[in-house]
Design goal:
Elements: E1 4-13, E2 16-22, E3 28-31, H1 38-46, H2 59-62, E4 71-78, E5 83-89, E6 96-99, E7 102-103, H3 109-112, E8 115-118, H4 130-144, H5 148-167, H6 173-205, E9 215-220, H7 231-240, H8 242-248, E10 259-264, E11 269-270, H9 276-298, E12 303-306, H10 315-328, E13 332-336, E14 350-357, E15 360-365
Parallel strand pairs: 3-13, 3-14, 8-12, 12-13
Antiparallel strand pairs: 1-2, 1-4, 4-5, 5-6, 6-7, 9-10, 10-11, 14-15
Helix pairs in contact: 4-6, 5-6, 6-7, 6-9
Amino acid sequence: MKVFLTHLHLSHFRSHKRADLALDGRPLALYGPNGAGKTNILEAVSLLSPGRGLRRATGDDIARKPESLGWKISAGIAGDLTHELTTGAETGQPRTLQIDGKTAPQTALARILPMVWLVPAQDRLWIEGADGRRRFFDRMTMSFTPAHAEAVLAYDKAMRERNRLLKDMVRDAHWYDAIEVQMSDAAAKITGNRHAALSRISSAQQGAQTAFPTADLTLREAEGGEALRAAGDFAAAFAASRPRDLAAGRSLIGPHRSDIAGIYAAKGAPAAQCSTGEQKALLISLILANARALREDTGTAPLVLLDEVAAHLDASRRAALFDEICALDTQAWLTGTGADLFTDLGDRAQHISVTERSGVSAIHFS
């Protein structure tokens, strides 16, 4: 069963004062000059999943200026079940979500519309800080286990409470015990989910007919947390770490300190030491493996958002990417500066020109 957007409506969303897209389930090739508003459309789609979207922007950043009237996204979903999603925010107010006219938490989106994405900001994923790699991999993990998002939220909430105690130099163990039980339960779920996702991605890469290289991934824990998997082990470790944590004023072990290491399998080289092109190819490989695994597990491929990906590939690998996307039978959203980048897609995709004039974006179906 294929899941895809049947329509997308944007109101006062960044450069789009109004945009209406009627969709038929095929991939979409959005092209136009830099600054025309292509990525803004992908960002809107990404906000139909839990979290702050592919730019991690605030509501005030998203709302179109100078009107500052708030913003709104509406979309229809076809699949095993049909749904109507509406999300947005009034000026100065938190984001809201309605599913079929009823208020719902963002975490519900993971079960309705699975989604993976790759954007240029992630090109430096292998050489920058661990925070970005954790977010990247946690989104993959959430695609397999939607409840992972709830475990992460529960862990972060409990950790913030524990960190407040640490900063205030509270030494009474009773203050920590209940909080650490909550942290430990969530930490065990997070770690188990991540290891399961790691195994699933690895399996999806093995033997796949693909033009993209295999990436061997390893989950690295912070010092002192290498062997922790069970809630009881985490609880004991948190208790033992209190003296160090008090000195630092923060929690030094736990899944919030984990990192993902990648190896270019064919060369045995760490991803961080590979060329820029090789690092990009490894990221594309992981996104495709994630989509393949989800299709194998559920019978449905996720939406795939690839921003400016075609420009970084030579013609043969670009054609191979398009073939893989079409074989997945997914509604992929791809952006690029020129229509020529998507020639190999032909009528397998809907082609949309995005233009901008006087700060207002417009879309035109080819």
